Amino acid sequence: MTLPTLSIRITDVVEIILLSILVYRVMLWIRETRAWTLLKGILVLGFFVAVAYALQMDTIKFLVAKGTDLALMAAVIIFQPELRRAMEQLGEKRVLPNIVPFDSSRNVSERMSDKTVNELVKASVEMGKAKTGALIVLEQNVSLTEYERTGISVDAHVTSQLLINIFEHNTPLHDGAVLVRENRIVSATCYLPLSDNMVLSKELGTRHRAGIGVSEVTDSLTIIISEETGQISYAYRGELSRGVSGEELKARLVSFQNKTVDMKKFRLWKGKTKNEEKDSE
Known about the structure:
YojJ-like (1; alpha+beta; 7-stranded mixed sheet
């Protein structure tokens, strides 16, 4: 008796690799969101359903068969924010960044300049010393337009004096967040989504939760100045770094500068653009 020969094609290997990556990413997503708690509940429920099928409990079998579709629909509704964020993160991967520049508007000339970084650090340190509460959101690849619309348009160069004046007590623009795009303050008094992370310290107020919240749903970096303690903190990807110094904040902002997509290598002419010449001046 001869055994049948198995032929493995290149497409089979590629398919296995893709499925492995997909399963791995799904497991990571489940572990990092509330879906992990749901999964544990599903496993417990699955055990009892398996017992019901083994013992031929017809009523439970009928309810399970009729309720599966409804349960899946409910799960999609409940985890809509997590599913949306997962799709956004997939889009941020930029599968073909070196082949097709889908977002040509994000080029090297549009990063924050060193002057902007210095002005942000200077304002943060000064407001920290004066215990002036502040919330500054720095846009990256994910657009903050939906939050920009909730505030008042400013459209001005980033300067420490302007930021300090905006967040000064009893001024019309001090309440809410300031949004910074490239080297400009685009909007003030903006409303941000609050984080619902139950692990966060109970000491954190609305300002910190808003800063963490917007960093959970976008790739922005948020600078937070505590009104009670004067502490400088920053939030990125849902993680909060508290009590940082001016030098630590500057190092983080310099690192943040290099997070945007560098399109310089696509330019045939190696000279400076008009925007770069303005920034260097």
